Amino acid sequence: MVADPERELEGKVAVVTGAARAIGRAVAETLAARGAAVASIDLLPADETVAAIEANGGTALAITGDVTDEVMVGAAVGRVLDECGRLDVLVNNAGLFAGIERRPFWEIELDEWEDVIRVNVRSVFLCSKAVTGPMREAGEGRIVNIASNVVTFGMANLMHYVASKAAVIGMTRSMARELGPSGIAVNAVAPGLVTTEITERTVPEEYRRLVAQGQCLQEAILPSDIADAVAYLAGPAARMVTGQTLLVNGGATMGPA
To answer: Is 207 part of the annotated catalytic residue set?
Structure first.
């Protein structure tokens, strides 16, 4: 048992991709609040995330770079190891969603398809590949991938995004099989529509209201809801949980009553 559950990640080091804002920032701040030193890897500067963590007494590092670039990812993981001495948790959060135009799949241009797959799938592969060396050497570790509940019902007119998140769930299960013997657990969190500063700007309020009405728990899903789920999977309470996808969507995919 952990002496202080609120500091259950004390001494751990976590890498969170896409932690400059929205869900990623909430995840980074939550893991830091539970004791982890947190490194952000993001195309955008994560100075505000770092400042917020340090203001609360935590330790954070911001690395600006492209998580689809293999050389950059390797260098970033190397920097984390050099500066922090270890790497215990990876949260693959970076991805494309906001701003993707919804259209029938036969109207999706190949370049757009490849952009979504590159960011949402390639980044998970590269970042996971980069951290498993030190994790396997240590004989422990946690990888948490951010998927989406759209995989469960196949949202229309968004096939490239749905396909990318279905791939993430499949990768999660395969990695759990391969890394389990090394003491590494791999899971996914699949959110519903989360209210962030990005979705408030890009998703009409009426649509967000309709989505909430389709949930069993008819409230807006917040970044903190996703962050708490990630923290659970990164923490000691999930010691024997691996290969799973945790839906955090207010029961939206329960089906008709």
So the answer is: no
